[in-house]
Design a protein that fits this description.
Elements: H1 26-37, H2 45-59, E1 64-69, H3 80-101, E2 105-110, E3 123-126, E4 129-132, H4 146-149, H5 154-175, H6 181-194, H7 198-217, H8 226-229, E5 233-238, H9 242-247, E6 249-251, E7 258-260, E8 265-268, H10 278-285, E9 290-294, H11 300-310, E10 319-323, H12 330-344, E11 349-352, E12 359-361, E13 367-369, H13 371-388, E14 392-398, H14 433-452
Parallel strand pairs: 1-2, 1-14, 2-5, 5-8, 8-9, 9-10, 10-11, 11-14
Antiparallel strand pairs: 3-4, 6-7, 12-13
Helix pairs in contact: 1-5, 3-5, 3-6, 3-14, 6-7, 12-13, 13-14
Bound molecules: phosphoenolpyruvate (PEP) and cobalt (II) ion (CO).
Phosphoenolpyruvate binds next to loops.
Length: 453
């Protein structure tokens, strides 16, 4: 696998790679990479191209991206129920957002591969002991002992296997009737009728209901129409552990191009998007849609060079910029970036991650996010894009289908005092199911306001 610019599947090794574990046994790592390279791909090039064509539409303002799921998937909390519940919330949000945006919603999970985390510190002090930081279950275990924190290459195989079963279930659910529009709508009706803000959302729910009745009256068989019974659901994760991504890269037999077959879409984190870094080098050679997280440390000129490196042909659908400035910084950071890229003519999809710039520690040292801060960043995101005439192309959120208490506020009115009740995230705080659906209704309102004015 080599392309004209000298890229090969392992050319990233010639560049500095940040946020990589210190694998104690590189011979074992090499064996794992060899083994994984012989396994079947998790996703297929044709599916990746389908996602790219949807994202291309989103770039033109004809679709909206909903990218959502866990901060970090777990090897331990792995069950059919938790996968189903996460999918259920994403489908519920998507229906509401379709109504609000008036365009199809592209559903992409942070799922089936989201097992590796960048960390602010290499090590953690536990009593007298300095141990490696937890880097996600693809690398080590969160238990604070030296033994548990030792990076273990075999975990790459476990991550692959868990991703396989997760994908298998997602494919079954999304094509087997679970995603049926009328069914998803009835879940939303249940939410509205039991929600404290229910009356407020009643209008949107009623409008969706009327649209369904209208389709039925026009003779569309809601129970057998494939576009209503089935949905396309795509997977994504942060491309962090480059040995894993390398091992799952395959040449598409139709086009002869390399595709990262660990997920449909891969993104590069805010900490690993250096122009001359290994992560950029790796994704520059694969054809998948690529996301780039953009935080407060962004340098406009470097970002333009990054975009040119990853998308020399300036194809729409190839690049998604996932901005995550925080509610206090978005107004000072996003406008000049949008302006610079507009001037430059780069075809990018702008989406907002309103989670990662709004994390704070409570007095009890618990990591949380306030629902109203998250909504405030989203509001600014929509307003800024409206003022520039650019399409606010989607949202990127951390959520779970469970009733966790990790973020404060929102529909469940979780307070800082209650956070410890059901805090199960191994990493960042996620919206619970009700907070996530609440968010979708509020975003739908913002989007339909934009459409009307
Ligand atoms: C994440 O999405 O979990 C993450 C670590 O994001 P960022 O790279 O934006 O900090
Ligand atoms: Co996170």
């Amino acid at each position: 696998m080599q392309n004209i610019s000298g890229w090969t599947v392992d050319s990233w090794k010639n560049f500095p790679a940040l946020q990589q574990p210190q694998w104690p046994d590189t011979a074992e790592l090499d064996n794992v990479v060899k083994e994984l390279s012989s396994y079947p791909p998790l996703v297929f090039a044709g599916e990746i191209r389908l996602l790219e064509s949807h994202l291309e539409k989103a770039c033109r303002g004809e679709a909206f991206l909903l990218q959502a799921g866990d901060c970090a998937e777990s090897f331990l909390d792995f069950s059919a129920d938790s996968i189903r519940d996460k999918l259920k919330v994403i489908l519920q949000m998507a229906v509401v957002l379709t109504y609000g945006s008036g365009v199809p919603v592209i559903k992409v999970g942070r799922i089936a591969g989201q097992f590796a985390k960048p960390r602010s510190n290499e090590t953690e002090q536990i009593g007298d002991l300095l141990i490696p930081s937890f880097r996600g279950h693809m690398v080590n275990d969160e238990t604070p002992t030296l033994e548990a924190r030792r990076p273990d290459p075999k975990r790459l195989i476990t991550a692959y296997n868990q991703s396989t079963s997760t994908l298998n279930l997602l494919r079954a659910f999304t094509k087997g009737g679970f995603a049926d529009l009328s069914r998803v709508h009835s879940w939303n009706r249940e939410f509205v009728s039991s929600s404290s803000a229910g009356l407020h959302y009643e209008k949107i729910a009623m409008d969706i209901e009327r649209a369904l009745s209208f389709m039925k009256a026009c003779g569309i068989d809601l129970y057998n129409e494939p576009t209503i019974k089935e949905v396309d659901f795509f997977t994504s994760h942060e491309a962090l552990i480059l040995e894993y991504e390398q091992a799952l890269t395959r040449i598409d037999s139709i086009t002869g191009d390399p595709y990262g077959c660990s997920a449909h879409m891969l993104w590069i984190g805010d900490r690993t998007r250096q122009l001359e870094g290994a992560h950029l080098e790796f994704v520059s050679g694969i054809k998948n849609p690529i996301g780039i997280k953009v935080g407060n440390g962004v340098d406009k000129n470097e970002l333009i060079k990054v975009i040119e490196k990853l998308n020399p042909e300036n194809k729409s659908g190839r690049l998604t910029l996932i901005t995550r400035f925080g509610k206090n910084n978005i107004d000072s950071k996003l406008p000049s970036l949008v302006e610079a890229l507009k001037k430059n003519g780069a075809n990018v999809l702008w989406i907002c991650d309103p989670m990662h710039g709004n994390t704070y520690l409570t007095e009890n040292n618990i990591k949380t996010r306030d629902f109203s801060d998250v909504m405030s960043e989203l509001k600014s995101f929509f307003e800024i894009h409206k003022s520039f005439g650019t399409w606010p192309g989607g949202i990127h959120v951390e959520l779970t289908g469970d009733g966790v208490t990790e973020c404060v506020g929102g529909e469940t009115e979780t307070s800082e005092e209650n956070l410890e009740l059901r805090y199960t995230s191994m990493c960042d705080p996620r919206l619970n199911a009700r907070q996530a659906i609440d968010m979708a209704f509020r975003v739908a309102e913002m989007l339909s306001d934009q459409k009307l004015s």
